[in-house]
Write a structure and sequence with these properties.
- 73% of the residues lie in helices and 0% in strands.
- The protein is mainly alpha-helical.
Length: 332
């Protein structure tokens, strides 16, 4: 009951944040120079057609009236209709969302699988060559832009070596008949893996580097605690100390970073999908901005904001699971 009450309270506290996101996005979108109706109808549309389209999407109304109408629609779960695609915004989001979620999930798996072991090893071998190499890798990962990593991976592994495809993404739920080079569903999964590996590394490198740095510093701090020294004094094996007594207590900062990295992953997905020509949420946003599709820009932005808020709430809930000293009544 505590977790349910806490989750509801945190979601209610997120409403002002979402209202701020909607307001800022609405004002910025409408401040962009240009006319989406002119872009949609071409260079020389008739005046009647322009008036009809403006009336259809409510663009002939004053800005405050449109703002209030949009807030009312959002409160009812309606994000409007895309001017460019002429379909409901929620429909376009649901079409593109699975691909982006697959990419983000893969990038986080790559980041966690690489970062946590390296962070622990780096902490255990502090100021030794392994530690220095790990820290340099983390520094490069934090400092290098996603799109540059993606381009280098394409040039090396797709163009010169030919090991992986450079563009596109095979969805694992596609039928084998629709996928080139796959005769069974297992073959589809293999094609998905081959198409997904380079984008996942591109998107996950920043997360990997950030998590590795936090894991290392957190493990160093925990390994210096008195109860760890006491365990060593009792002759407990070092591997058991790390696995049973230090690892779990060192994960609270890591969980915080993972939750906050959700924002970086959402932003990075835009560039990664553009570099690898993947039809996900990132390319949907780019298309919406290029065509000044106001409802689609605002709808995708609101969705990203809501995703981040939910990620923060999940992060907070995870605290109490990892650390019994934290209760849902004390987190906030």
């Amino acid at each position: 009951m505590g977790i349910l009450r806490y989750t509801i309270r945190r979601l209610l506290q997120a409403i002002p944040v979402l209202l701020g996101i909607v307001t800022i996005t609405f004002l910025l979108t409408n401040a962009i120079p240009g006319d989406p109706v002119q872009i949609m109808l071409g260079p020389s549309p008739s005046a009647e057609m322009v008036d009809q389209i403006r009336a259809q999407y409510g663009l002939n109304q004053p800005l405050p009236v449109r703002y209030v109408n949009y807030l009312t629609s959002v409160a009812q779960g309606n994000l409007g209709e895309s001017i460019y695609y002429r379909t409901p915004v929620t429909t376009k989001i649901m079409q593109r969302l699975p691909v982006t979620l697959l990419l983000m999930l893969s990038s986080f798996i790559f980041a966690l699988v690489v970062a946590i072991p390296l962070g622990i090893i780096s902490a255990k071998r502090r100021n030794k060559p392994t530690d220095h190499v790990t820290r340099i890798v983390a520094l490069i990962g934090v400092s290098t832009p996603d799109f540059w990593i993606g381009l280098m991976l394409i040039i090396v592994f797709a163009y010169y070596l030919g090991w992986f495809p450079a563009t596109g993404l095979v969805e694992p739920w596609q039928k084998p008949s629709a996928v080139e080079g796959a005769s069974t569903q297992l073959g589809v999964f293999w094609q998905t893996f081959m198409h997904l590996l380079l984008p996942a590394i591109t998107l996950g490198t920043l997360q990997m580097a950030a998590i590795m740095r936090i894991e290392r510093s957190s493990m160093l701090e925990v390994l210096q605690q008195e109860y760890v020294k006491l365990a060593r004094a009792y002759g407990v094996a070092e591997r058991k100390i790390v696995r049973k007594h230090a690892f779990r207590n060192a994960q609270l900062p890591v969980i915080t970073v993972v939750g906050l990295q959700l924002t970086a992953a959402l932003g990075g997905a835009v560039l990664t999908e553009t570099v690898f020509n993947i039809n996900g949420m990132g390319r949907l946003i780019i298309t919406a901005i290029n065509n000044q599709d106001y409802p689609l820009v605002m709808g995708t932005t609101i969705f990203f904001g809501l995703t981040f808020v939910v990620g923060v709430v999940i992060t907070d809930i995870s605290y109490a699971y990892i650390d019994p000293r934290v209760s849902y009544d004390e987190v906030d």
